[in-house]
Amino acid sequence: MGKLFSALFRHPSGRIGLVIIGLYLIIAVLGMLGLTPHDPLKLFAIDRLKPPSATYWFGTDLLGRDTFSRLMVGIRQSMVIAFASVAIATLAGTIIGLLSAWWGGVWDGIFMRVMDVLLAFPAILLALLIIAIVGPGTTTSIAAIAIVYTPIFARVVRGPALSLKQRDFVDAARTFGSSQPYILTRHLLLNLVAPLAVQVTLALAWALLTEAGLSFLGLGTQPPTPSLGLMLSESRNLMQQAPWLMIFPAVTIMLGILGFNLTGDALRDILDPRTQRREA
Amino acid sequence: MTRLLSVRDLRVGFGQDPKANEVVKGVSFDLDAGQTLAIVGESGSGKSVSALSINRLVDFGGGRITGGSIELTRADGSVLDVTKADERTLLGIRGHDVGMIFQEPMTSLNPVHTVGAQIEEAFRLSKGLTGEQAHRASLDVLGRVRIPDAQSRLGYYPHQLSGGMRQRIMIAMALAASPRLLIADEPTTALDVTVQAQIMALLAELREETGMAMIFITHDIGLVAGIADRIMVMQNGVAVEQDEADRVLDAPQHDYTRHLLRAVPHFTSGAAVRGDSARPTASEPIVKVDDLVVRFPVGRAWFKPKGAIHAVDGVSFDLMAGETLAIVGESGCGKSTTARALLGLNTVTRGDIQVTSGRSGRPVQMVFQDPFASLNPRLNVEALLAEPAIANGQRLDADLRKRMAFLLDRVGLPQDALSRYPHQFSGGQRQRLCIARALMLNPDVVVLDEAVSALDVSVQARVLDLLIDLQHEFGLAYLFISHDMAVVERIAHRIAVMFAGQVVEIGNARAVLHEPQHSYTKRLIAAVPAVERRRQRFAVDMTQVPSLVRPAGYEPPAAQWREAGEDHRVRLEEQA
Amino acid sequence: MSYVVQRLLTFPLILLGVSILVFVSIRLVPGDAITAMLGTEAGLLTPAQRESLAAYFGIDQPVWSQYLRWLGGLFQGDLGISSIYGKPVLTVILERFPLTLQLALMSMTISLCVGIPLGVLAATRNERPSDLVVRVLAMLGQSTPSFVIGILIIYVLSVFFGFVPAMGTFTPLFVDPLASIAQLIFPAITLGFAFAASVTRISRSAMLDVLSDDYVRTARSKGASPMSVIWRHALPNALIPVVTLCGVEFGYLLGGAVIVEQIFALPGLGRLVLDAITQRDYALVQGTILFIAFNFLVVNLLVDLAYVALDPRIRIGRR
């Protein structure tokens, strides 16, 4: 684990990615603890639409709220939703994909057809369908994104699991009489850590993007809780007078997604046996 | 004879700093027109890199020529130093003066184009032929590489052809340019031994027809005895010996050449079989296989299989304690399926496998072909060796550690190996690990499925010696699955020859190898290359392996056997 | 051919699964089905009216018979009545669909035309400056959400060029092709931006893989020129993963249209879904999502068939 971390840090894009993720995690924790420069919900009535200054680092919005503090809480909101949803999707997807590959036959058919049905919906539409039923909110966003990504994880795990199942070391384990749980965990799951790590990182980027998209549409995090997408959406009518209201949330969203994408790419480079072979 | 090629002090390196990472370290050789040079060496010796430098294909694999010269006499008589030529000139050399064929005929042909399109392209690039002319030329060249039914084959895609056919297509493509030099980079390594013999025969004939020179790269010094005029032996990027073929083979000067010729298994038609332990007739066999049948259904239509692959079709044999039975045959003959069935890795369609329960609960263990694939890369050696014991209810305690240390020592690995991971070992060491692991449960029988085939030739010899030592020490019986007759000759007490899912001949090793009776066994043994067989002409043999797919419900006729001698049985052949 | 047959056989199965999922999910809406169907107007009904409506819509029947009835309706193109528009759902959808389809196709065209050449260029100049520039751009493109791009485009156009893209209306393609394309060009760029980036990345890595394959070495040994090696030998093989990507990404384009149509105020299917959700027009939500999923599945099937056409190893089995 420590070795992987230092390898990531030596990788040029991995280093940038890790720094961004680290920064966002720190901000998210500060946001959770309420350690923002101003109260993100407080209306400073005399300070409406102020450009960035020493007091309001990123300016204020139409209601006089401090943009920087709202961004901090927005990042917290995004990170909580992204991590929670990806954790659920990883767990569910890995179990489904692993068992589907291992049992094969009828079970594989049933599991994978159900996953195909979920994959038949464009991701954001499936999320919208769920939101339409349950109503928007933080929990709904987490559930919606988790359901959207579960089939993707199931496929990511099933493919390599199927090929691992054919490998000689699994056959060898069978000839010793190793138990199924032993084979599933030590021979399959242990070798799936690398592709899963890459997928988890990239899924976090996608989850951030989806969360921002949903709240941009007004169907994610509900006001008054600040969220990055909603802040960007609200800035549209004021982009001529107050461009900072647009620029800062836009950059915050992009940078966060970029951080996870860069790290995921670096991980793939480091863990991919093909690139290792190419270097050798 | 005119000089075609003159290589002087060639140096080739790889990576960021090619001078520091040289793979070829100053190789010189000459080649006359029409001559055949064989470059022999093990993996990493720099033999392929040297050859790929001649048409500078090495550039595309990340290699850089760091020194020396390669002077090639072109068709018009001018001499060109290839190391200094620009890319434009090189395009004129590739596919004109120098043709090439490669090891893997499957991956060397473009999967999305028909073979016809690929051959016609070669004619277009080398001779400017297009359309009807190119088509006719392609038909003609397919005839020259002995491909029947050429007209329809031109429309095939590479995946529709067998390995031998694909290699013929590759040769046809190289011939399109009428090259004066053909570089053959291990062209038969991926092929079965009888197919190898056909390709070698074809190359020898074409060389005589066209008068082209050849550079033949191989790891098998026995193979080149039949075709080479000169031999160059390479080790670690240096040519350790080069001379006339006969002189290298008969009076090798360098230690490494001697090692390749003597220590490495070469086929000797039964002269080198083991002399130890005659077959005890009184005792009961430890493994008894009776009429084993393994079939895989194919072509399911509405849940009822249309037919089945008869992978193993009525195989019977028995194995005594302490003896080695080798099952030999070519790919697809069912030998591995038989081995896997013995360990319960395949579902058995019919038949009986009886194993006398011996020293432990799991008397049969297995070693696989590929030591890279049969060890989980994420577990260390301790976890790998402990797995069979833990699976059978033991605990990872001092006793178990003692057994692991003992076995590591017995297979010749250091004690500190326990904390290391598979990628930190060489191929031969990994196979030793696999052997140690198979012995953890103290089995009576070890199934060795092509267990030395993936190893370099000199490593093969040492692992074979180890296997024989272990057999004596632990009283093991081996079921040794192999396609390599030279290896089988060294380790087998008895041999069963399999063809198309059936055993066609079985008996003591000497009798089967020295006096083969069945026509397939004869063909197989005739195809094995050997140092003694100099410039021997293989007849171009187009016998095809019969399809193993049979309609549902098909049963082969009962086998008729003939006794050919003491412990030597031959299956009677249908009169054609 | 068995691959194609298998795909064609599972297609209706998945479609059935999709319809069950949509049907069940809408039945899960809190409150009763009458409210679900009529939205806020349901509050005005008397209990007697409710009962007769329930009988009329068959809601007093068990769920499975309701589903079968609904499914039977689907086959006749009956997706129910939209409470917002007071028209059959299918009519509303078909009015809005051309815009979204055109938008998705335009984005896909732009992405492929930009992405494939850039990816090939980067692969052939592996590790050289032009490769690095392409890779950085692709990475940024992949990390920029469409709503950020869209807003930036509108901002730049309006602040620096004083130009506001036409919003709110749409000229159908067959009425005035040029105006129609011009109208959707910025939305299409917005929607296709991230897709172009992934096409670039996939074509680059596929091309790199293919360029180290043995048959490329064979082509070089035949004396094929660098251009011929890239376009004739490598690209057809490298395109196989790009085609797979197109199938998956078409779904993202249809889904992404929700956001892009919102930004540019375009009357397409995406806007329709949003309006339906915010105004609780469940028949419309159900119908639109089903319609989009159906289209996505059809496109995926077509892509799979294209994939088969590209790869003879799947098209033709061994002889």
Automatic annotation (TrEMBL), chain A:
Against InterPro entries, the record matches this protein to: BP-dependent_transpt_permease (IPR050366), MetI-like (IPR000515), MetI-like_sf (IPR035906)
Provide the transmembrane region boundaries.
16-35, 79-102, 114-134, 188-209, 242-264
Key words of the record = Cell membrane, Membrane, Peptide transport, Protein transport, Transmembrane, Transmembrane helix, Transport
GO biological-process terms attached to the record:
peptide transport; protein transport; transmembrane transport
Looking at the record, the residues that make up the ABC transmembrane type-1 domain are 75-264
Query: What SUPFAM superfamilies does the database record attribute to this sequence?
Result: MetI-like
User: One GO CC annotation, please?
Assistant: plasma membrane
Using the UniProt record, give the first listed, main subcellular location: membrane
Concerning CDD domains, the annotation shows: TM_PBP2
Tell me the protein's name: ABC transporter permease
Automatic annotation (TrEMBL), chain B:
- The entry's keywords: ATP-binding, Cell membrane, Membrane, Nucleotide-binding, Transport
UniProt main location, coarse: membrane
Q: Which GO terms describe its biological process?
A: peptide transport; transmembrane transport
InterPro entries in the record? AAA+_ATPase (IPR003593), ABC_Ni/Peptide_Import (IPR050388), ABC_transporter-like_ATP-bd (IPR003439), ABC_transporter-like_CS (IPR017871), Oligopep_ABC_C (IPR013563), P-loop_NTPase (IPR027417)
- This protein's record includes keyword ATP-binding: yes
MF-aspect GO terms: ATP binding; ATP hydrolysis activity
Query: Topology versus the membrane, per the UniProt entry?
Result: Peripheral membrane protein
Q: Report domain ABC transporter positions.
A: 7-261, 287-525
Q: Which Pfam families match?
A: ABC_tran, oligo_HPY
Subcellular location(s) per record = Cell inner membrane
> Which GO CC annotations does the UniProt entry carry?
plasma membrane
Q: Which NCBIfam families does the record match to this protein? A: PRK11308.1
Q: Which family does it belong to?
A: Belongs to the ABC transporter superfamily.
Q: Tell me what this protein is called.
A: ABC transporter ATP-binding protein
Automatic annotation (TrEMBL), chain C:
Q: Does the keyword Transmembrane apply?
A: yes
Q: Where is the ABC transmembrane type-1 domain?
A: 97-307
Q: Which InterPro entries match?
A: BPD_transp_1_N (IPR045621), MetI-like (IPR000515), MetI-like_sf (IPR035906)
Domain of life the protein comes from: Bacteria
Indicate where this protein is primarily found: membrane
This protein's UniProt keywords: Cell membrane, Membrane, Transmembrane, Transmembrane helix, Transport
Annotated membrane-spanning segments are: 7-29, 103-124, 145-166, 178-199, 238-264, 284-310
Per the record, membrane topology reads: Multi-pass membrane protein
* UniProt-annotated location(s): Cell membrane
Q: Name one GO cellular component term.
A: plasma membrane
Which Pfam family name is an example for this entry?
BPD_transp_1_N
List the GO biological process terms: transmembrane transport
Q: Which family does it belong to?
A: Belongs to the binding-protein-dependent transport system permease family.
Q: What is this protein called?
A: ABC transporter permease
Species: Devosia sediminis
